[in-house]
Design a protein that fits this description.
Rossmann fold; 9 helices; disordered N terminus; binds NADP nicotinamide-adenine-dinucleotide phosphate
Length: 279
Protein backbone atom coordinates (compact mmCIF):
# COMPACT_ATOMS: atom_id res chain seq x y z
CA UNK A 1 0.00 0.00 0.00
CA UNK A 2 1.31 3.43 -0.91
CA UNK A 3 0.67 6.12 1.67
CA UNK A 4 1.03 9.77 0.81
CA UNK A 5 1.14 12.03 3.80
CA UNK A 6 1.58 15.73 3.30
CA UNK A 7 2.26 16.32 6.94
CA UNK A 8 1.87 14.30 10.09
CA UNK A 9 -1.78 14.33 11.05
CA UNK A 10 -1.49 12.28 14.21
CA UNK A 11 -1.45 15.23 16.58
CA UNK A 12 -5.10 16.22 16.51
CA UNK A 13 -4.20 19.88 16.07
CA UNK A 14 -6.40 20.60 13.07
CA UNK A 15 -8.67 23.59 13.34
CA UNK A 16 -12.36 23.58 12.53
CA UNK A 17 -14.53 20.52 12.17
CA UNK A 18 -11.73 17.98 12.28
CA UNK A 19 -11.00 15.34 9.67
CA UNK A 20 -13.55 13.38 7.68
CA UNK A 21 -12.37 10.03 6.34
CA UNK A 22 -14.09 9.08 3.09
CA UNK A 23 -13.55 5.62 1.63
CA UNK A 24 -14.05 5.13 -2.09
CA UNK A 25 -13.36 8.81 -2.66
CA UNK A 26 -11.66 8.42 -6.05
CA UNK A 27 -14.96 8.59 -7.96
CA UNK A 28 -18.74 8.75 -7.82
CA UNK A 29 -20.56 9.25 -4.53
CA UNK A 30 -17.36 9.27 -2.44
CA UNK A 31 -15.77 12.04 -4.53
CA UNK A 32 -18.92 14.16 -4.06
CA UNK A 33 -18.87 13.55 -0.28
CA UNK A 34 -15.23 14.69 -0.28
CA UNK A 35 -16.21 17.87 -2.11
CA UNK A 36 -19.18 18.69 0.11
CA UNK A 37 -17.41 17.92 3.38
CA UNK A 38 -14.39 20.06 2.43
CA UNK A 39 -16.80 22.92 1.65
CA UNK A 40 -18.39 22.35 5.07
CA UNK A 41 -15.00 22.93 6.67
CA UNK A 42 -13.67 19.40 7.20
CA UNK A 43 -10.12 18.38 6.47
CA UNK A 44 -10.09 15.14 4.54
CA UNK A 45 -8.46 11.75 4.51
CA UNK A 46 -9.42 10.07 1.25
CA UNK A 47 -9.09 6.33 0.72
CA UNK A 48 -9.33 4.20 -2.44
CA UNK A 49 -7.07 2.03 -4.61
CA UNK A 50 -6.42 4.40 -7.49
CA UNK A 51 -3.81 6.82 -6.15
CA UNK A 52 -3.74 8.90 -9.30
CA UNK A 53 -7.46 9.59 -9.28
CA UNK A 54 -7.40 10.20 -5.52
CA UNK A 55 -4.59 12.68 -6.06
CA UNK A 56 -6.53 14.64 -8.63
CA UNK A 57 -9.62 14.81 -6.35
CA UNK A 58 -7.37 15.90 -3.46
CA UNK A 59 -5.48 18.53 -5.46
CA UNK A 60 -8.69 20.08 -6.80
CA UNK A 61 -10.18 20.29 -3.30
CA UNK A 62 -7.03 21.77 -1.79
CA UNK A 63 -7.08 24.48 -4.41
CA UNK A 64 -10.82 25.15 -4.23
CA UNK A 65 -11.33 24.96 -0.47
CA UNK A 66 -7.92 25.44 1.14
CA UNK A 67 -8.60 22.43 3.37
CA UNK A 68 -5.93 19.93 4.36
CA UNK A 69 -6.48 16.86 2.16
CA UNK A 70 -4.49 13.66 2.55
CA UNK A 71 -4.82 10.45 0.59
CA UNK A 72 -4.23 6.83 1.45
CA UNK A 73 -4.06 4.53 -1.54
CA UNK A 74 -5.35 1.21 -0.18
CA UNK A 75 -7.20 -1.87 -1.35
CA UNK A 76 -9.64 -2.45 1.49
CA UNK A 77 -9.99 -6.14 0.55
CA UNK A 78 -6.27 -6.64 1.28
CA UNK A 79 -5.68 -7.32 4.97
CA UNK A 80 -2.43 -5.35 5.31
CA UNK A 81 -3.93 -2.30 3.60
CA UNK A 82 -7.08 -2.47 5.69
CA UNK A 83 -5.09 -2.78 8.94
CA UNK A 84 -3.09 0.35 8.10
CA UNK A 85 -6.25 2.37 7.57
CA UNK A 86 -7.69 0.93 10.79
CA UNK A 87 -4.56 1.95 12.70
CA UNK A 88 -4.85 5.49 11.40
CA UNK A 89 -8.53 5.64 12.41
CA UNK A 90 -7.66 4.42 15.89
CA UNK A 91 -4.71 6.77 16.42
CA UNK A 92 -5.75 10.06 14.81
CA UNK A 93 -7.65 12.15 17.34
CA UNK A 94 -8.46 14.75 14.68
CA UNK A 95 -10.86 12.32 12.97
CA UNK A 96 -14.46 13.34 13.61
CA UNK A 97 -16.28 11.60 10.76
CA UNK A 98 -16.08 8.34 8.83
CA UNK A 99 -17.97 7.93 5.57
CA UNK A 100 -18.01 4.21 4.78
CA UNK A 101 -18.70 4.54 1.08
CA UNK A 102 -16.29 2.20 -0.76
CA UNK A 103 -18.31 -0.60 -2.24
CA UNK A 104 -18.95 -2.66 -5.33
CA UNK A 105 -22.11 -4.27 -6.65
CA UNK A 106 -23.21 -7.19 -8.79
CA UNK A 107 -26.19 -7.71 -11.05
CA UNK A 108 -26.11 -11.39 -12.14
CA UNK A 109 -27.99 -14.18 -10.37
CA UNK A 110 -26.04 -16.23 -7.82
CA UNK A 111 -25.76 -19.26 -10.08
CA UNK A 112 -24.37 -17.10 -12.89
CA UNK A 113 -21.89 -15.25 -10.66
CA UNK A 114 -18.18 -15.62 -10.00
CA UNK A 115 -18.22 -16.76 -6.38
CA UNK A 116 -14.71 -15.38 -5.75
CA UNK A 117 -15.83 -11.96 -6.93
CA UNK A 118 -18.83 -12.17 -4.59
CA UNK A 119 -16.54 -13.09 -1.70
CA UNK A 120 -14.40 -10.05 -2.48
CA UNK A 121 -17.55 -7.93 -2.52
CA UNK A 122 -18.40 -9.19 0.99
CA UNK A 123 -14.81 -8.41 2.06
CA UNK A 124 -15.23 -4.81 0.90
CA UNK A 125 -18.91 -4.04 1.56
CA UNK A 126 -19.16 -5.88 4.89
CA UNK A 127 -15.81 -6.78 6.45
CA UNK A 128 -13.87 -3.60 5.73
CA UNK A 129 -16.83 -1.38 6.68
CA UNK A 130 -17.19 -3.24 9.98
CA UNK A 131 -13.49 -3.13 10.82
CA UNK A 132 -13.16 0.57 9.96
CA UNK A 133 -16.22 1.38 12.05
CA UNK A 134 -14.88 -0.63 14.99
CA UNK A 135 -11.56 1.20 14.68
CA UNK A 136 -12.98 4.72 14.69
CA UNK A 137 -15.82 4.34 17.20
CA UNK A 138 -13.94 4.09 20.51
CA UNK A 139 -12.25 7.47 19.89
CA UNK A 140 -15.51 9.12 18.87
CA UNK A 141 -17.29 7.72 21.93
CA UNK A 142 -14.44 8.81 24.20
CA UNK A 143 -14.62 12.34 22.79
CA UNK A 144 -18.44 12.24 22.85
CA UNK A 145 -18.72 13.61 19.32
CA UNK A 146 -18.48 12.70 15.66
CA UNK A 147 -20.37 10.81 13.00
CA UNK A 148 -20.32 7.56 11.05
CA UNK A 149 -22.13 7.59 7.71
CA UNK A 150 -22.66 4.21 6.12
CA UNK A 151 -23.60 3.96 2.46
CA UNK A 152 -26.14 1.17 2.13
CA UNK A 153 -28.58 0.92 -0.81
CA UNK A 154 -32.28 0.65 -1.50
CA UNK A 155 -31.62 -3.00 -2.38
CA UNK A 156 -31.26 -3.54 1.38
CA UNK A 157 -35.07 -3.28 1.31
CA UNK A 158 -35.51 -5.02 -2.03
CA UNK A 159 -33.73 -8.39 -2.18
CA UNK A 160 -35.43 -9.20 -5.47
CA UNK A 161 -33.50 -6.39 -7.19
CA UNK A 162 -30.00 -6.98 -8.64
CA UNK A 163 -27.80 -9.66 -7.06
CA UNK A 164 -28.90 -11.19 -3.74
CA UNK A 165 -25.42 -11.18 -2.23
CA UNK A 166 -25.08 -7.48 -2.99
CA UNK A 167 -28.49 -6.87 -1.45
CA UNK A 168 -27.41 -8.91 1.58
CA UNK A 169 -24.27 -6.82 2.06
CA UNK A 170 -26.34 -3.65 2.00
CA UNK A 171 -28.96 -5.09 4.39
CA UNK A 172 -26.02 -5.83 6.70
CA UNK A 173 -24.97 -2.18 6.49
CA UNK A 174 -28.51 -1.07 7.33
CA UNK A 175 -28.80 -3.48 10.29
CA UNK A 176 -25.37 -2.56 11.63
CA UNK A 177 -26.24 1.12 11.49
CA UNK A 178 -29.54 0.62 13.31
CA UNK A 179 -27.72 -1.40 15.94
CA UNK A 180 -25.02 1.30 16.26
CA UNK A 181 -27.61 3.98 16.88
CA UNK A 182 -28.87 1.76 19.70
CA UNK A 183 -25.33 1.33 21.07
CA UNK A 184 -23.77 4.77 20.71
CA UNK A 185 -26.62 7.16 19.93
CA UNK A 186 -26.70 8.33 23.52
CA UNK A 187 -22.96 8.95 23.60
CA UNK A 188 -22.80 11.95 21.32
CA UNK A 189 -21.94 10.02 18.15
CA UNK A 190 -24.25 10.42 15.16
CA UNK A 191 -24.83 7.46 12.86
CA UNK A 192 -26.64 7.43 9.55
CA UNK A 193 -27.34 4.84 6.87
CA UNK A 194 -27.90 6.24 3.41
CA UNK A 195 -29.94 4.15 0.98
CA UNK A 196 -29.38 5.51 -2.53
CA UNK A 197 -31.45 4.32 -5.44
CA UNK A 198 -29.79 4.06 -8.84
CA UNK A 199 -27.13 6.77 -8.97
CA UNK A 200 -25.16 7.80 -12.01
CA UNK A 201 -21.60 6.58 -11.30
CA UNK A 202 -19.11 4.01 -12.59
CA UNK A 203 -20.73 1.54 -10.15
CA UNK A 204 -23.02 0.20 -12.87
CA UNK A 205 -20.34 -0.52 -15.46
CA UNK A 206 -18.28 -2.21 -12.78
CA UNK A 207 -21.29 -4.27 -11.66
CA UNK A 208 -21.91 -5.51 -15.20
CA UNK A 209 -24.90 -3.40 -16.29
CA UNK A 210 -24.42 -0.22 -18.32
CA UNK A 211 -26.38 2.62 -16.71
CA UNK A 212 -27.84 3.46 -20.13
CA UNK A 213 -30.00 0.36 -19.73
CA UNK A 214 -31.83 1.89 -16.76
CA UNK A 215 -34.85 4.17 -17.27
CA UNK A 216 -33.56 7.72 -16.79
CA UNK A 217 -36.44 8.58 -14.41
CA UNK A 218 -35.03 6.23 -11.76
CA UNK A 219 -31.43 7.48 -11.96
CA UNK A 220 -30.24 10.32 -9.70
CA UNK A 221 -27.01 12.29 -10.09
CA UNK A 222 -24.34 11.66 -7.45
CA UNK A 223 -24.43 15.40 -6.64
CA UNK A 224 -28.15 15.36 -5.83
CA UNK A 225 -27.88 12.06 -3.94
CA UNK A 226 -25.11 13.31 -1.64
CA UNK A 227 -26.73 16.72 -1.09
CA UNK A 228 -29.96 14.98 -0.06
CA UNK A 229 -28.09 12.55 2.20
CA UNK A 230 -26.31 15.44 3.95
CA UNK A 231 -29.63 17.23 4.36
CA UNK A 232 -30.89 14.04 6.04
CA UNK A 233 -27.84 14.05 8.32
CA UNK A 234 -28.48 17.69 9.22
CA UNK A 235 -32.07 16.74 10.09
CA UNK A 236 -30.78 14.05 12.45
CA UNK A 237 -32.05 11.13 10.39
CA UNK A 238 -30.83 7.63 11.18
CA UNK A 239 -31.99 6.30 7.81
CA UNK A 240 -31.98 8.49 4.72
CA UNK A 241 -33.60 7.31 1.50
CA UNK A 242 -33.04 10.21 -0.90
CA UNK A 243 -35.63 9.11 -3.48
CA UNK A 244 -38.44 8.16 -1.10
CA UNK A 245 -41.29 10.62 -1.64
CA UNK A 246 -42.96 10.17 1.75
CA UNK A 247 -40.75 9.55 4.80
CA UNK A 248 -43.84 8.16 6.58
CA UNK A 249 -43.60 5.06 4.34
CA UNK A 250 -40.25 4.17 5.89
CA UNK A 251 -41.58 4.90 9.40
CA UNK A 252 -44.47 2.53 8.74
CA UNK A 253 -42.15 -0.28 7.68
CA UNK A 254 -39.91 0.30 10.68
CA UNK A 255 -42.88 0.35 13.05
CA UNK A 256 -44.11 -2.96 11.61
CA UNK A 257 -40.67 -4.43 12.26
CA UNK A 258 -40.62 -3.13 15.83
CA UNK A 259 -44.14 -4.50 16.34
CA UNK A 260 -42.80 -8.03 15.68
CA UNK A 261 -40.04 -7.70 18.26
CA UNK A 262 -41.84 -8.85 21.45
CA UNK A 263 -43.07 -11.98 19.68
CA UNK A 264 -39.93 -13.18 17.94
CA UNK A 265 -38.66 -15.41 20.76
CA UNK A 266 -40.87 -17.65 22.94
CA UNK A 267 -40.38 -20.93 24.80
CA UNK A 268 -42.96 -22.73 22.68
CA UNK A 269 -43.68 -22.71 18.96
CA UNK A 270 -46.61 -20.70 17.71
CA UNK A 271 -49.94 -22.55 17.74
CA UNK A 272 -49.93 -23.05 13.95
CA UNK A 273 -46.79 -25.21 14.24
CA UNK A 274 -47.67 -27.22 17.35
CA UNK A 275 -49.32 -30.22 15.66
CA UNK A 276 -46.25 -30.66 13.47
CA UNK A 277 -43.98 -30.62 16.57
CA UNK A 278 -46.21 -33.11 18.44
CA UNK A 279 -46.54 -35.41 15.44
P1 LIG B 1 -18.07 4.08 -7.91
O1 LIG B 1 -18.03 5.38 -8.63
O2 LIG B 1 -17.67 2.85 -8.65
O3 LIG B 1 -17.20 4.24 -6.58
C1 LIG B 1 -16.75 3.16 -5.82
C2 LIG B 1 -15.58 3.64 -4.99
O4 LIG B 1 -15.11 2.54 -4.19
C3 LIG B 1 -14.42 4.08 -5.85
O5 LIG B 1 -13.82 5.23 -5.28
C4 LIG B 1 -13.46 2.91 -5.79
O6 LIG B 1 -12.14 3.40 -5.96
C5 LIG B 1 -13.72 2.40 -4.38
N1 LIG B 1 -13.32 1.01 -4.25
C6 LIG B 1 -13.74 -0.05 -5.00
N2 LIG B 1 -13.11 -1.17 -4.61
C7 LIG B 1 -12.27 -0.81 -3.62
C8 LIG B 1 -11.34 -1.52 -2.81
N3 LIG B 1 -11.14 -2.84 -2.95
N4 LIG B 1 -10.63 -0.84 -1.86
C9 LIG B 1 -10.80 0.50 -1.71
N5 LIG B 1 -11.69 1.22 -2.43
C10 LIG B 1 -12.40 0.57 -3.38
O7 LIG B 1 -19.53 3.78 -7.38
P2 LIG B 1 -20.48 4.62 -6.39
O8 LIG B 1 -21.84 4.50 -6.96
O9 LIG B 1 -19.94 5.95 -6.11
O10 LIG B 1 -20.44 3.69 -5.11
C11 LIG B 1 -20.25 4.18 -3.81
C12 LIG B 1 -21.14 3.40 -2.84
O11 LIG B 1 -22.51 3.67 -3.16
C13 LIG B 1 -20.98 1.89 -2.89
O12 LIG B 1 -20.94 1.40 -1.56
C14 LIG B 1 -22.23 1.40 -3.58
O13 LIG B 1 -22.62 0.11 -3.16
C15 LIG B 1 -23.24 2.46 -3.11
N6 LIG B 1 -24.43 2.59 -3.94
C16 LIG B 1 -24.34 2.96 -5.24
C17 LIG B 1 -25.49 3.05 -6.00
C18 LIG B 1 -25.45 3.44 -7.46
O14 LIG B 1 -26.47 3.29 -8.15
N7 LIG B 1 -24.35 3.98 -7.96
C19 LIG B 1 -26.75 2.79 -5.42
C20 LIG B 1 -26.81 2.41 -4.09
C21 LIG B 1 -25.65 2.32 -3.35
P3 LIG B 1 -10.92 2.59 -6.59
O15 LIG B 1 -11.41 1.85 -7.79
O16 LIG B 1 -9.92 3.68 -6.88
O17 LIG B 1 -10.43 1.69 -5.51
Amino acid sequence: MATQTEQGAQNGNHQGKGTAVVTGASSGIGAVYADRLARRGYDLLLVARDGERLNSVAERLRQQTGRHVEIISADLTVKADLRRVEERLRADRAITMLVNNAGVGATAALIDSDIDALEKMIDLNVTSLTRLTAAVLPGLVERGAGAVINISSIVALSPETLNGTYSGTKAYVLNLTQSLRHEVGGKGVRVQAVLPGATSTTFWDRAGLAIQHLPSQIVMSADDMVDAALAGLDQGELITIPSLLDAADWEQLNSARQHLQPNLSHSVPAARYRSAVAG
